[in-house]
Recover the amino acids of this structure.
């Protein structure tokens, strides 16, 4: 890819200081998003993926959250050093976010159309009738039937999938160049999930917007993402093109994750869940954070932090046994 | 969507507020009573000012229910033989002016400080909360007495004192609500779409807090009327010949064993005013809440 990355996250570290403990939610995450691509961040609950997204949007409340190190650059501009009011000017116009909980991400006391129109008004782009009409156009664009009359309805009159569509409409309203979708389909049922992902993907292609898709759902990643970063205990443990990473993992965690997914076909084969549970982020184990749950773990893993290994060009894994996993997996 | 739901949707878009009011008997009665009170407030002193101060010693402590001294004496006469009815009507202006202005200012000031305390930050929030603690830990009657002795007891000073003593309740409730609402996802979403702090406070937090504050306001309304009456009783509130309902209750207390109606009717006026305010505000809260409105719009079926 020739163009400069639209977003570069470098060695990002985020801590939550909670009186007794310091929780290391993100411990040195680095990744880039090229303009126009879909990058996925994959990880189980508590791996730091949502915190990373909130940090990019600067939604973390400080205290208790502190950025302990690293940088985030959006279009070459260092986000974290910008005054918050200046960063808010970027939000909505150039970067936007869709939230996990579609059911609560809209204000219950205003009609849906009003809320979208308000976005145009607040950004000084359109007012009055024009803003209303634009809101209706947007609702139509995200596939809401009978948008003119639905615009007058309130949040509670929409189903979960419809609410997520409205939220997506608001996120793309001002034509951002980067959309962060934080588990956009988690709260929805499976058939609706597919529709929402399809919608996001088609909107992304129409406007050549880049997208960061945060999810724990391997099938979603496999479907739409170009590149994927697998996170565990606040670190990116493996990174690369989706087909390669999921097709032939080079990190023991990615491999274990793939093994633990139920398959619709092949009845009879047992699932292999990952034993144990994710580490307490206030007490991350020494060495590789995954070592207590890893079937490849050796003494080396228990004592030394693994290096970043370039498995094939453009693919990295943070694993002592990357070669072994890659070859035998 | 079922047909019943579709019906509900169609009705929702068509039912105007006055037709909803007409369908709710209690809310309608409350609204009518408040309208009557407002008419007394506007015209009372002009129409009945003279009757309220005219002494008729033959009608001293006249029991209610007779019209032999004219229809103005229907609710009886007070200790000096003045018409109870006329005095009630005339007193409505002072009473409502003081109570409404005081609760209004208490709500505005308390709400504003509460929002700052809840939304802006810990430092300034702590200062505001300690200020509220001080206000609440000091007996409000004592505070009022001190202030009104130092300043002269006028209507303006009375309103200011009452507003300040009621302020901490609005402040605390607003702060608590703001603390909860600011953590909701739609606030994050507004943030992520470029909403400034001021915008979020105005457009997303205030509309959610407002109904709660309005409900407290109606309850507070009666508390303020009673507080005003105790101050008047102590001689530092409204001074005769000016009258308020609270003052009438206080004066009537002396005659409670001989002439119960002296304290009863003004007390009833206070109670009805509060009750009507309460019912109507409850109705308003339901109407203005998009998730509750259907309860009022639901078509009546048979025996319901």
């Amino acid at each position: 890819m020739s163009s400069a990355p639209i977003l570069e996250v470098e060695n990002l570290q985020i801590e939550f200081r909670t009186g007794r403990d310091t929780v290391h939610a993100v411990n040195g995450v680095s990744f880039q998003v090229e303009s126009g691509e879909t990058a996925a961040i994959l990880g189980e609950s508590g791996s730091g993926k949502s915190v990373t997204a909130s940090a990019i949007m600067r939604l973390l409340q400080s205290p208790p959250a502190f950025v302990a190190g690293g940088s985030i650059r959006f279009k070459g501009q260092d986000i974290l050093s910008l005054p918050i009011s200046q960063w808010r000017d970027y939000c909505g116009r150039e970067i936007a976010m869709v939230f996990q909980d579609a059911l609560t991400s809209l204000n219950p006391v205003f009609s849906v159309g009003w809320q979208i129109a308000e976005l145009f008004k607040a950004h000084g782009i359109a007012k009055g009738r024009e803003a209303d009409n634009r809101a209706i156009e947007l609702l139509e664009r995200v596939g809401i039937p009978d948008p003119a009359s639905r615009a007058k309805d309130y949040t509670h009159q929409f189903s979960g999938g419809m609410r997520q569509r409205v939220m997506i409409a608001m996120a793309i309203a001002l034509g951002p160049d980067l959309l962060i979708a934080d588990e956009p389909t988690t709260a929805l049922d499976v058939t609706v999930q597919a529709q929402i992902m399809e919608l996001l993907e088609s909107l992304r292609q129409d406007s050549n917007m880049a997208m960061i898709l945060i999810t724990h759902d391997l099938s979603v990643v496999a479907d739409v993402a170009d590149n994927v970063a697998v996170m565990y205990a606040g670190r990116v443990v493996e990174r690369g093109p989706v087909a390669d990473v999921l097709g032939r993992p080079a990190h023991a965690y990615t491999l274990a994750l793939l093994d633990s997914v139920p398959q619709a076909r092949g009845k009879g084969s047992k699932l292999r869940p990952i034993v144990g549970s994710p580490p307490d982020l206030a007490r991350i184990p020494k060495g590789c954070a995954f070592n207590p749950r890893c079937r490849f773990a050796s003494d080396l893993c228990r004592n030394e932090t693994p290096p970043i290994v370039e498995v094939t060009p453009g693919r990295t894994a943070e694993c002592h046994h990357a070669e072994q996993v890659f070859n035998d997996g | 969507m079922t047909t019943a739901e579709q019906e509900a949707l169609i009705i929702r878009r068509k039912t105007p507020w006055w037709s909803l009011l007409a369908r709710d008997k209690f809310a309608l009665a409350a609204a009518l009573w408040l309208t009557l009170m407002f008419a007394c407030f506007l015209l009372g002193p002009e129409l009945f000012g003279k009757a309220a101060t005219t002494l008729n010693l033959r009608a001293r402590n006249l029991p209610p229910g007779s019209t032999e001294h004219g229809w103005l004496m229907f609710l009886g006469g007070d200790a000096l033989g003045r018409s109870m009815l006329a005095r009630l009507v005339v007193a409505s202006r002072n009473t409502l002016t003081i109570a409404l202005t005081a609760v209004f200012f208490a709500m505005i000031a308390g709400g504003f400080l509460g929002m700052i305390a809840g939304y802006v930050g810990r430092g300034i929030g702590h200062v505001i909360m300690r200020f509220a603690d001080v206000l609440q830990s000091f007996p409000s009657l004592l505070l009022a007495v001190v202030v009104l002795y130092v300043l002269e007891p006028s209507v303006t000073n009375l309103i200011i004192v009452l507003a300040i003593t009621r302020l901490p309740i609005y402040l605390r409730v607003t702060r608590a609500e703001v603390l909860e609402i600011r953590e909701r996802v739609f606030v994050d979403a507004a943030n992520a779409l470029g909403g400034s702090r001021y915008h979020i406070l105005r457009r997303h937090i205030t509309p959610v807090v407002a109904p709660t504050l309005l409900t407290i306001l109606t309850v507070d309304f009666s508390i303020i009327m009673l507080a005003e009456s105790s101050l008047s009783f102590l001689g530092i509130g409204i001074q005769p010949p000016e009258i308020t309902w609270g003052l009438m209750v206080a004066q009537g207390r002396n005659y409670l064993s001989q002439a119960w109606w002296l304290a009863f009717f003004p007390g009833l006026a206070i109670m009805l005013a509060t009750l009507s305010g309460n019912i109507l505000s409850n109705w308003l809260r339901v109407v203005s809440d998009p998730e509750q409105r259907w309860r009022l719009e639901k078509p009546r079926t048979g025996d319901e």
Summary: DSSP finds twelve helices and no strands in chain B. The two ends of chain B are 25 Å apart (CA to CA). Residues 16-297 of chain B form a domain with the MetI-like fold fold (CATH 1.10.3720.10). Chain B has a mean pLDDT of 80.
